[in-house]
Fold this sequence. Notes:
Blueprint: E1 6-10, H1 16-23, H2 26-31, H3 40-58, E2 62-67, E3 73-80, E4 89-94, H4 103-117, E5 123-128, H5 133-141, E6 145-150, E7 159-165
Antiparallel strand pairs: 1-2, 2-3, 3-4, 5-7, 6-7
Amino acid sequence: METERLLLRWLEADDAGFVHELMNDPGWLRHIGDRGIRSVGDARRYIDERLRAQCIQLGYGLNRVALRASGTPIGICGLVRRDWLDAPDLGYALLPQFRGQGCATEAATAVLEHASSVLGFGRVAAIVSPDHRDSIRVLERVGMCFERKVMPPDESREVCVYQRVMR
């Protein structure tokens, strides 16, 4: 996928260094959670065993988001399948230096358009920590509405579920 400023593509093993950095960012750890990625090797395995495996199996997943002008990776954005949600889950995260510039909104808009026009989804969900105001603003900007709070399986904190019915 391409937008005015961004390029989105499936994550590859060569993205391991970037994924290691992103998943160990304090914002990621606070709002998304610790995935146990302690090294570039851990990140490579996570990409191969979890992220790319989902893309291959389902035809969608998390994408690397990079700046079109330079190719610099700045974050991830895509759809995740969660057994406890009844629709694909829109997820995104950016490195700290790229937050607050509209890139998450731009990437999420592209993913939602792809979800509707290419994948044919009639509904997309998103989960977010109740205190993550910046992420909630992104969800609202891309047309998602609060649906409910829920305690995910094997989690110790409640999350908000947002949803958007696709047209």
